[in-house]
Design goal:
Low-confidence stretches: none
Structural class: alpha/beta
CATH superfamily: NAD(P)-binding Rossmann-like Domain
Radius of gyration: 18 Å
Bound molecules: nicotinamide-adenine-dinucleotide
CATH class: Alpha Beta
Number of strands: 6
Shape: globular
Mean pLDDT: 95
Length: 234
């Protein structure tokens, strides 16, 4: 999904710093975009964040938009998930998002302008079985987005969260196909559909919008189609 966001932002004229731990894929993506840079960045590494952001600010002048997209999932219920996996999910998804904001927000505040888009999930709005670590992390991202938006009040910097449903990526395609039958938009989502929301929040079209949670989930989180009817008939 990050690749789609990068292409969408580049098409709007942004200069892009692609960051990932998958160097080959990241470099190939950046090479296809005029003026883009690739940086190896493990989002759990505070020093790496400092060094990457310094380089980007030195070469581009500023970081105006941060999309905190990196994320991992390990499926497992509360009884089965290993504490190691639980901690690892929180480290990448929650601490990684915190470190991104912690590193770029001072520069945005100095310049009086900026937008942070934190990628949460439908799992940041509801519970899912077998997803204790992931659900915890995505609720965490939703909450820290609001806390950070308040911390940046009056600074000209906005912080919002995006909540994709099941999206066609290696992560999303691991979801059961049956999931869509009782969803209001009964199909998997495309990365570009999430990108359009990211672009809106990244730019001044969303100038009166901060601390908000934005769903791109095909209606997944509002309930199940036909459920009340089926229950009444029992
Ligand atoms: N695909 C879905 O259905 C779905 C739904 C809701 C939310 N999301 C969220 O959207 C985001 C993107 O997911 P995706 O589906 O494209 O997943 P993906 O697994 O295809 O991509 C995740 C990316 O994060 C990178 N990454 C993982 N650990 C990292 C680390 N420590 N440092 C830097 N980069 C790291 C991976 O290398 C990969 O490029 C994630 O935050 C995910 O939780 C996905």
């Amino acid at each position: 999904m990050g690749a789609s966001h990068v292409r969408g932002l580049a098409a709007e004229g942004a200069r892009i710093a692609v960051c990932d731990v998958l160097d080959e894929e990241g470099k190939a993506l950046a090479e296809g975009l005029p003026g883009a840079q690739y940086h190896h960045l493990d989002v759990t590494d505070e020093e790496a964040w400092q060094s990457v952001v310094r380089t980007v600010e030195d070469t581009f002048g500023s970081v105006d938009v941060l999309v905190n997209n990196a994320g991992i999932v390990h499926f497992g219920g509360v009884e089965e998930q290993s504490p190691e996996h639980f901690r690892r999910i929180l480290d990448v998804n929650v601490v990684g998002t915190f470190l991104g904001m912690h590193t770029v927000l001072p520069g945005m505040r100095r310049r009086g302008h900026g937008s942070v888009v934190n990628i949460s999930s439908a799992a940041g709005l509801m519970g899912f079985s077998e997803g204790i670590g992931y659900v915890t992390s995505k609720w965490g991202i939703r909450g820290m987005t609001k806390a950070a938006a308040l911390d940046m009040a009056g600074s000209g910097v906005r912080v919002n969260s995006v909540h994709p449903g099941v999206i066609r990526t290696p992560m999303g395609e691991s979801a059961a196909p049956g999931l869509f039958a009782d969803q209001p938009v009964p199909r998997i989502g495309e990365p570009e559909e999430v990108t359009r929301m990211v672009l809106f929040l990244a730019c001044d079209d969303a100038s009166y919008t901060t601390g908000g949670e934005f769903l791109v989930d095909g209606g997944q989180t509002i309930g199940h189609v036909g459920q009340a009817h089926a229950t009444a008939g029992r």
